[in-house]
Amino acid sequence: MRITAIQLPYFLPLFLFLVSGFSLAQEGEFVSATVIDQSTGEPVIFASVLLKGKARGVITNLDGGFRLPARYREEGFTIQISSMGYQKKEVPLLKLSLTSLNTISLNPGVLELTEAVVSAKKKREPTARQIIRRAIVNILQNYPTSNFTTKGYYRDYQLDSLGYLNLNEALLEVFDAGFDEIDSATTKTRIYDYVQNKDFRRDTLADDLYNYMNGRKTIDKAYLKAYGGNEFTILRVHDAIRNYRLNSFDFINNMTKGDILKNHSFKKLEETYFDEENLYTIQIRRTEPGFKTRGTIYIAKKDYAIHKLQYAVYDRSKKNLDPFLQQQGIKGQLVFQVTTEYKRGVQDKMFLNYISFHNTFRLAKPPKFVVRYLTVLPERSAFVLHFNNRLASRSGTDISDSGFWYKFKYKDKEIKFQNTRIILDSTVYLYPKMAARPLNNMMRELVTMNRKNMDVGRVLKFSVGGLLDIDGNTLNTWEYKDYNQFREYFVQELENHPQKPVDSLLMDKYAPIFEKQPMYRPDNFDEYWMNTPLKKVD
After folding, report:
1. What whole-number distance in Å separates Cα of residue 221 and Cα of residue 10?
2. What are the C-alpha distances in Å from 537 to residues 31, 187, 201, 520, 534?
3. How far apart are CA 320 and CA 329, in angstroms?
4. How far is CA 62 from CA 59, 130, 485, 513, in A?
5. Closest CA to 16 of 161, 203, 201
6. Residue 277 and residue 37: Cα distance in Å, rounded?
7. What is the pTM of this model?
């Protein structure tokens, strides 16, 4: 089966979470904290929080928050917090409160480069393009080619101006046969637990599958296949590093074929580091009439391993109203953004740390004010429109000057009307302007067709508009609302050379992840937990 990722046919920032407060769910069961930048006070997003000596941890959320089971505090564990461009920090959990939200600050790192004193001519530094080319060539050398398992926290959710909604969470074990195998064909997943979180808002319309046939839910200027409803499958397809031999997403495409090199321009930026390792920092750009792409790739100097890839596509035809992105000079509206981070593990190989896939989508909500049905009254020589709510125009008045418009056709011939009247608050009578004989014949035929259960719509077609109901809704007007959609997977634990799962308790990748999937509970199930976002309160 060929899997096609997000394709382009020709954000409130996600940092809206600096609000008046957060609620601490299950107070006492978890230690909760936010990680911030010491100099700016801004949240440090996707920082690694590791239990020292246990090789297990979490990644901070979009508000910089994280939570750890309280038992690790009582057992005296220390956490190590690291993030690209920051100094690593250790914090004993006993110093953190169980009953209030803790704040931990990280200091931006200062990169110290050692000078190599050589007598020969100084070696020329590789260009940005050469660095990326070497990184692609070295993928099988730098990433595992034998069995490994990641165990971690998965979630998908939407964001609007009020915060999180439709938050779904799961604990997963993902068996990977190695980078020399095709991910979609060989990777197996077990579900330890899943929940549709009812502590946050649910919106059934926003939670539906994408529908490009009726336009109810779409990604503007892009297409995202439903994959049978399995959101985790969608997420993994967009890991361009793991799927380096396949078409991961537009403009990055197939890395081994050099698509990323052909499709972009590059610029070396100031070097940075992660876990005390020097990294090249390379800016990725592409600009064309309809779109602008911006990205950054972080590559190790010592062996050209890719540590992190950030990539975003913007629609240049739409103005960006997001203040955060405006400060970065982004003028177009976000279409999609992928952030993937790898870190060193067993035998110095690179293993997934987290992946976050974010796209915007537009939801079309049906009109609140509509025509319920049309009736024919031969004795009054009138058509009667029945609405689902009371009209703003009141009782028995002529509404011909109210902006109300209507188009009726009988057997493809337009019907003229002499007047329109509101008889009841939710009913409008329309009187055709016709000679008596053709008018009576039309009415008689329509009544006969209706009595015989024939399709009246074959001969009578109509459309109406221009009216308001008492709640201010315009007749037959669809509402459109923009949302941010996220799918994310954060690794909590890595296991090297595990046994390939042979049981039947495997996730069906073609079925929705949160509907009747089998669950597998390991003996140490209680050592894994969901890093549920802190709930925003006023």
Report:
1. 8
2. 19, 40, 13, 35, 9
3. 10
4. 10, 33, 13, 23
5. 161
6. 20
7. 0.79
Side chain identity at residue 452, one-letter code: K
Chain centroid to CA 265:
27
Closest CA to 86 of 137, 140, 39, 152: 39
Angstrom distance (rounded) from CA 78 to CA 53: 9
Residues in the chain: 538
Beta strand segments in 320-412, E: 332-344, 350-365, 371-377, 382-387, 405-410
Tokens of 373: 């049905």
* Residue linked to tokens 């480069």: 113
Q: Which of 110, 17, 92 is nearest to 60 (CA)?
A: 17
Residue with the two structure tokens 């398992």: 149
| 417 within 8 A of 406, measured Cβ to Cβ | yes
Give the Cα separation of 36 and 34 in Å (integer): 6
Q: Are 421 and 399 in contact (CB under 8 A)?
A: yes
Backbone angles phi, psi at 456, to 5 degrees: -65, -25
Q: Which residue has the tokens 């004795």?
A: 379
Provide the CA 533 distance to its chain's centre, in angstroms.
15
Q: Decide: 506 and 190 in contact? Cβ < 8 Å.
A: yes
Using one digit for the tens of pLDDT, what is the confidence trace for 75-121?
Answer: 999 999 999 889 999 999 999 999 899 999 999 876 554 444 444 45
- The DSSP bridge partners found for residue 344 are 350
* C-alpha 57 chain-centroid distance: 24
CA dihedral 234, 240, 244, 246 (to 10 degrees): 40
Taking only the tens place, the pLDDT of each residue in 341-367 is 999 998 999 999 999 999 888 788 889
